[in-house]
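--- STAGE predict ---
source: upstream dedup step, 1 unique chain passed
mode: sequence only
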Amino acid sequence: MDSLIFSVNATFPIFLTMLLGMFLHRVGMMDDRFADYLNAFVFKVALPVLLFQDLATQDFAAAWDGRFVLFCFVVTALSMAAITLLAHLVVRDVPQRGEFIQASYRSSAAILGIAFIQNVYRSAPTTMAALMILGSVPLYNVFAVVVLTLTAEGDGSSRPSVGSMARKAVRGVITNPIILGIVAGFAWSLLRLPMPKILASTVGNVAVLATPLGLMAMGAQFRFRSARGSLGVATVASLVKLVGLVAVFMPVAIHLGFRNQQLIALLVMLGSASTVSCYIMARNMGHDGTLTSTIVMLTTLGCALSLTMWLWVLRAGGFVS
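--- STAGE serialize ---
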């Protein structure tokens, strides 16, 4: 029951913040142009700062677990490959295919991971969540840039060559603000640079804006009429996100000997709701974002129950204490 209450408290405010964005749009306080500005701010400033904050304050040298990081990386890569194959079977529209792929594998690792471990283990350190972020989130973003670039709607001209698309994808990866935030945070931690209180407070003030502003912008631009047409595909993606990936890869993790905080971090990586940054990136890379926002809403509503169910299974099996 404690796990269910925590899951509801962690996820339902996310849904309510989306509804607030819808309400503000309905009453004329947040039009589409303003929502676009919010999306750009979150993508270029707030999310990179949030990821920098999550990584810069961790002591990776003291708690490094290369085997765990490698497992996160390999599982993330395999998940993306499998979902890409599935997308070609269930999604006909190419731009929607890119959104389906991204939202089906990309979790709320940075936003929910540390909080979830802290709830389960109270005052225990959250290094495993940071290591999970390091093993998965950079790959999340690199692959998202590539797949969204390759599936973005064109401007009506002839399809660009493979070489030009590859150059565009590489340029997108190198200049992606979220990836730059991850690199900066990891470098800050490795170099053991100090974090003065003034800087930490400023970073925290900016980082805390990422989730609420992104959610309100997504809610303001959500259209129920458009979402109805993609509800079936969104449901498939949500089942993959909340059930499929955990069911496939968690037994492998248990077989390899991962336990406790490691499994909780993996549970967040595999089975938490699709992160709002999916929508932010989709909108900033030429996609409509309707399918993505639908998947984010469905997985946000569903993960309170699904995460609680998986946590109960892990505890019942004696794998998490």
